[in-house]
Automatic annotation (TrEMBL):
<dbReference type="InterPro" id="IPR029030">
    <property type="entry name" value="Caspase-like_dom_sf"/>
</dbReference>
<protein>
    <submittedName>
        <fullName>Caspase family protein</fullName>
    </submittedName>
</protein>
<dbReference type="Pfam" id="PF00656">
    <property type="entry name" value="Peptidase_C14"/>
</dbReference>
<dbReference type="InterPro" id="IPR052039">
    <property type="entry name" value="Caspase-related_regulators"/>
</dbReference>
<feature type="domain" description="Peptidase C14 caspase">
    <location>
        <begin position="3"/>
        <end position="156"/>
    </location>
</feature>
<dbReference type="InterPro" id="IPR011600">
    <property type="entry name" value="Pept_C14_caspase"/>
</dbReference>
Length: 183
């Protein structure tokens, strides 16, 4: 088995939350990088790229959840989930990934749902990369602060801790994770 699957999501357009400017660009760059190795040989075959740069290409929380479910349901060598966009935190320390239609942030996709899908996946290696506010909550055990729960075969990379906001650098069309990785 040498299947490598990826879902790459970048959301700049939000109906009710502040518009972002670098997430679509980052997602396109990540998808391009995943397609082939430095020597030009094939790496991930056709990463599933989802970008929202306007109302016509909006990505709902249901779209995000469906894409993650499809990614993690099959056995593969690697299943990689990448999200760049708004993230939020509620009063009970639950983290969320925001779809284009989200109004308050805590009406998005629960990070715990994404992590549960990845943990239960038959994929050998599961990679979750989150460039959003409060994305550090992704590895926390439900209901327990400061306790990470990452299983063997899981890699999680986040742009912020559970309590931090991520940010865009004005004038730079890149979200925070890419900015820090390249500077």
């Amino acid at each position: 088995m040498s299947t490598r699957k990826a879902v790459v999501i970048g959301i700049n357009h939000y109906d009710h939350l502040p518009i972002l400017s670098g997430c679509v660009n980052d997602a396109q760059s990540v998808a391009s990088i995943l397609e082939e190795h430095y020597d030009g040989t094939s790496n991930f075959l056709k990463p599933h790229l989802m970008v929202a740069d306007g109302a016509a290409t909006a990505i709902s929380k249901a779209d995000i959840k469906d894409a993650a479910r499809e990614l993690f349901e099959d056995q593969s060598e690697v299943a990689l989930f990448y999200f760049a966009g708004h993230g939020d935190l509620d009063d009970e320390s639950s983290g969320y990934l925001c779809g284009s239609e989200c109004k308050a942030g805590d009406d998005g996709v629960l990070l715990a749902d994404i992590m549960r899908m990845a943990t239960k996946s038959p994929a050998i290696n599961k990679v979750v990369i989150l460039d959003s506010c409060h994305s550090g909550l992704a590895g926390n055990r439900d209901g327990v602060d400061d306790v990470a729960e990452i299983k063997e075969g899981m890699t999680v990379l986040t742009a912020s801790t559970a309590k931090q906001s991520s940010f865009e650098v004005r004038g730079v069309r890149a979200c925070s994770l890419r900015y820090f990785l390249t500077h």
